[in-house]
Design a protein that fits this description.
Length: 774
Amino acid sequence: MSKLAVVGKDYQKTDAFDKITGAAKFCSDMTVPRMLHAKVLRSPYPHAIVTKIDASDALKLPGVKAVLTHDDVPKILYNRDYHTVWDTLERDNYILEKKARYVGDKIAAVAAEDLDTAEEALDLIDVRYQELPAVYDPVEAMQADAPKIHDEIMIGDRRVPVRNNVIRNTSLEVGDLEKGFSEADMVFEDRYATQRAQQVASEPHSVLVIPEANGRLTVWAGTQSIFGLRMKLAAALGMPESMIKCVRTHMGGSFGSYLDMNIYEPITALLAMKTRRPVKYVNTREEEFISTARHPAVSYIKTGVKRDGTLTARYLKTMMDGAAYAAHSAAASYCVGGWFLSMYKAPNMKYEGCVVYTNTFPCGAFRGFGHPQQNFPVESQMDMIAEELGIDPVEIRLKNHVGLGDDFYYQGVARHGPVCSCGVPELLEKGAKLIGWQEKRLRKREISPTKRYGIGVARGFHTSGAGDKRYGGDTYEYASSIVKFNEDGAANVITAGADTGCGEWQVWCQIAAETLEIPFEKVIMSSMSGITTDEAPHDLGTHATRGTYAIGMGVKAAAEDAKKRILEVAAGILEGKAEDLEAKDGKVYPKKSPDRGLTYAEIAREAINLGYGPIIGTSAIRPSSAPPAFGVKFVELEVDLDTGKVNLLNVVAGHDCGRVVYPAGAECQLGGGVQQGLGFALTEDLVIDEETGATVNGNLRDYKILRTTDMPPVQLFFVEALEPTGPFGAKGIGEAPINDMASAVANAIYHATGMRFKELPITPERILRALGRI
């Protein structure tokens, strides 16, 4: 492993001073002169048609400046998904609706001088509804007599009828599935279900729209992609993208919840255009809970295996709840297929996916994006197979995992390529040693008459970005950056990439410093809160675990271009040739005469004085692969048979993200994924009342995320399987840490109790019910 000066070391976080001093600009905190406040009137019914709406009394209320209804918005169907090509998207919603499709759907909007007045005005809008039958279960929604949630949608320029509430079907078969099952000595078949879970980012969604004198809109928003927001906002409003300037802000977390345009950005923009005043909207926490969530899924899994543990056939059929509007639903199902096909090797495999409309609030991207929904059935069944065959669960995973040189599917079933770096064997072997796997598997399970001990393992992965060797396709992948030298030798990094609170800006500065061979302290992340779509080069933003890998590649390429430029300018100053010069340690000198060197500062200054112009490097790249970043989880726990409570004792979590660029940040990502994954396994479940369609526990009091005091000891470790296509050998880490955590918990609970739970979360009530105690 080559010696690096900056990459792989910890430094003071790039945005630390801004956050500590309060200088960091979060959109929810922002105020500007003459700013109005927006609120949205939401449907109390899960399925209903607005037959009458009268806003006259609301408009008479002092302080109310505008009211919008469906009659006041462009009649343009849109989809809020940022990263999918427009012509392939299911477009099915308006800025405001005449037909409500879930409790909380957007019916009208108000802009007023203050929040209290805006909220009072909502109560004065007279709306009459014709209630319609509703359906909340995707299986029921597909029945012939189920209520029709959408009659038709738009895909490209085509109007497409919706049949049986199905948004999209996805399938792919490799080999001959029937032949594979016929060759198996044993066949395992099961049904699993995962729940609706919310991202629970610290900062609620917000937006501030400022109408400019020239007709443009300036949009401040917490978003993972300022260019994605600009694209979808322009489409929904029916205006040119150049008339919208989106501004990057600091973000109080995301976990995928900011990876699409939510309902409030176009509503707030229209209110600003109508009033010609700045308008701000901020979600309440209750509104946040119905803004987006992870897609619930039901999966049917079937696996054929030889007695020696060799897999002959694998099949997964997943039905996802697409909720009231498509958003990311079709993409999520599409990705599930790629994740499933890339977990374990078999000559014969098939995936079938279906996404279905229901009368529930929209779902979107959530850390792992379809991965936890397939990992739970796959890793649970892998444990069942190991037990039946008498093979150690670690060994059967080592035998069958997709690894170095194997064909791997990227984000979806259409893109694939070879695995070029793989730390799976080392992850499993080191993790097993750290937790004492061999000894503890033999440990007596009965701790006391009412307590049982269990230990479990699971593995997973996530791709680093959404690259593809093919041009075209249905997903964007593009990275670009600018690196600019100052006259004192410091360098600015300019990119549209967002920092979701996880240290992405730090990573890019370290990559730039390493490439330029200058101290980390001499790299500046430009306009951490304030870079806009006007001056930053186009980038897709921070999603799909592409921050370190794809955006990092763009930053590295721009820094290399700046370094090339500084050599060219130095050659002119020194009256030589660029190829005869060497740039190292912030200095350029002739290879044969190092005593004649010039510092970067001297070159940058002279470049201006002598007319060479500023030293600027640029990049515009299209990553052609999306390498897997692998992970593993081992967990120890106790189950109380009297209460059903699971007491977490110990977690060992490992990750292969290639070269670790920013160790402290990587540890936070891995540890955070453990905590989120444990919540997904044991407590988190956003419940819909099937009589009213309302969210039962949409608040931080009733929705149970794990606190720090709920966490067991967690031991983290990293395996650096260097990725040849990544910047300095780096891959991603963002999403993978959550994907296999629930599976490891479920396997440990089975080891403790002998009961196989096939539905998440595994709550005390479900455990007691399985024990026959309730």
